[in-house]
Amino acid sequence: MQQIFNFVIRNKTFLLFLLLFSIALALTIQSHSYHRSKFINSANFLTGGVYGTMNSVDQYFNLKKENNILAEENKVLRELLFNKNSESDSTFIDSTFSKDHYKVTVADVYKNSYSATNNILTINKGRNDGIKEDFGVITSNGIVGIIDNTSNNYATVISILNTKSSINAKLKSSRHIGSLTWNTESPNIVQLEDVSQYAPVKVGDTIETGGESSIFPKGIGIGTISDFESDISGDTYTIQVKLFNDMTNLGTVYIIENLNRSEILNLENNSNE
Amino acid sequence: MNNIIGINTIRFFILLLVQVMICNHIDLFGYVNPYIYIIFIFLFPIKDQRLILLLTSFILGMLVDIFSDSGGVHAASAVTLAYARPIILKSSFGMLYEHQSIKFSATDIGSLISYISIGTFIHHSMLFSLEIFNISNILLILKKTLFSSIFTIILSVLMIILFSRNKK
């Protein structure tokens, strides 16, 4: 017993190092698996407060650019509105059965990140605003990511610039689907993998969300094809997609809640059993 | 004694805030960021307080991790640097370290640069191998380590020289 105590006292520095290092290592390993980083994340009171102060200063430098983006978006929405009116004249909508499928919340990006391999954003809306895990996040240009952790007033978003993220997407010209991943090389380019070789892939075509994941609505723009090549096996294409969004400059984002999500998930679970 | 504790506490919080509010968002050439919070570990008093140094560097690393959503990579690499510090000190300062009489504001610049370079390199290689966590991306790890190390070393040496002059 005496010898054990002596050993501990003699090697106390090394033992403390070992203890602290294994705690840190455990947290690292945990953070590398999807939806597991529960303890160490920036959706909390302390970091939210600091990033909030920083953001309120930072916002003033981007006001002009932000105004231009909003004006541009207003133009698009107005066009949509006018065009929709003229179309819906001829079709009859039964208001008893028509119901909103998506709810949209506006949020500010408090912390953006695009240079690491697993990029995570922090936004200023949380559980108090009805934000939950697995809601989609977009800007007026295209998709940004998926909500990961939430606290009362803040939430973290797994960016599409994250090796863990994989989002369902499809070609706009046809219905061929693939999954969107990132190879960490450039913050403007993501990869669309596992696209069938029968798909009519052309440089310059648009890629949009597929609507199969029940997170994003169908038809939200992602980017354009800048390059593509066949896989080693020759069965599938890997497509380089140039994003519509400038992921290095995000201000205001929209959080999308699919109101039918629980129903869809239930149904899928039931049919899997 | 109180003075030393006070200076180190203030340095702890200032370096943490500068790191998470400015240095994490520089992104030179798209991905190069300096990690200047390790100056705290470099400048920690030399006298035999290794347990306190280990604990404080762990907490500092953990706080940087929380701010940058990176799991425990900064904590792990900061603890490694804190544990390896006596060896680096001995190799760069030699006899001065044996006598426990190093004053960072008064040492010659060559030893200071070699001390900071070795420490930064150890910290950064640990940091990026844990952050990327994939042996097949070894080139990316080396590239990030090299460029970030250069940036951190330049900034750290400049800051140490700049701020230690004032106290004279």
TrEMBL record, chain A:
The gene is mreC. Gene3D superfamilies: Rod shape-determining protein MreC, domain 1, Rod shape-determining protein MreC, domain 2. Residues 109-257 form the Rod shape-determining protein MreC beta-barrel core domain. It holds the Pfam family MreC. Keywords: Cell shape. This is Cell shape-determining protein MreC. One of its GO terms (biological process) is regulation of cell shape. NCBIfam families: PRK13922.9-3. It comes from Winogradskyella endarachnes. The lineage of its organism: Bacteria, Pseudomonadati, Bacteroidota, Flavobacteriia, Flavobacteriales. Belongs to the MreC family. InterPro entries: Cell/Rod_1, Cell/Rod_MreC_2, MreC, MreC_beta-barrel_core. One of its GO terms (cellular component) is plasma membrane.
UniProtKB/TrEMBL annotation, chain B:
Keywords: Cell membrane, Cell shape, Membrane, Transmembrane, Transmembrane helix. InterPro entries: Cell_shape_determining_MreD (IPR007227). The gene is mreD. Belongs to the MreD family. It is a multi-pass membrane protein. One of its GO terms (biological process) is regulation of cell shape. This is Rod shape-determining protein MreD. The chain crosses the membrane at residues 5-22, 28-44, 51-68, 109-133, 145-163. It comes from Winogradskyella endarachnes. Its main location: membrane. It is found in: Cell membrane. It comes from the Bacteria. GO terms for cellular component: plasma membrane.
